[in-house]
Amino acid sequence: MNVIGIKFPSLIVNLAEQISMPNTTLALFVIGYFLDFNLEKDEILSLLKGLAIKYTPGIALFFVLPLFFNTASMTIKAIMLGTIMPTALVAVIYSNEKDLNTKLASIFITATTIVAIVFMSLIMIKWH
After folding, report:
1. Which positions of the chain have pLDDT values less than 70?
2. Among 50, 100, 108, 125, which residue is least crowded by beta carbons within 10 Å?
3. Residues with Cβ < 8 Å from 57, sequence gap 6 or more?
4. pLDDT at 12
5. DSSP 8-class letter at 98
6. What is the pLDDT of residue 30?
7. 3-class DSSP state of 100
8. What pLDDT is recorded for position 90?
9. Reduced to 3 states, what is the DSSP secondary structure of residue 4?
10. How many other CB atoms are found less than 10 A from the CB of residue 35?
11. Which residues neighbour 123 within 8 Å (Cβ) at sequence distance 6 or greater?
């Protein structure tokens, strides 16, 4: 919307800001609620493999996309941020329904939330 110059009324902007505020609280709640790192050795290996599979493409895109595209573009920024977003909470529900390891799923969500906060902070520092 910024690209084509559409400006929203302050009421809508304020409403969107008010809606976005609880997201930080929810992320911290998720981290605190699922923060239980008592894992078996095979679960630790699975967690590390999952994190590597999830974040390797995002890190690669972070270094490769600026070589080919202008990083001022909102599309490129959205792609780069989309690759490092945390795993959705629905993963726990899915793992429960499929009789998978729900503890590992919840720890994976917590780990990806922490990693995403760190990566997003680094990206915002680089872009600013």
Report:
1. 1-3, 19-37, 128
2. 125
3. 83
4. 76
5. T
6. 62
7. coil
8. 83
9. coil
10. 13
11. 62, 80, 81, 84
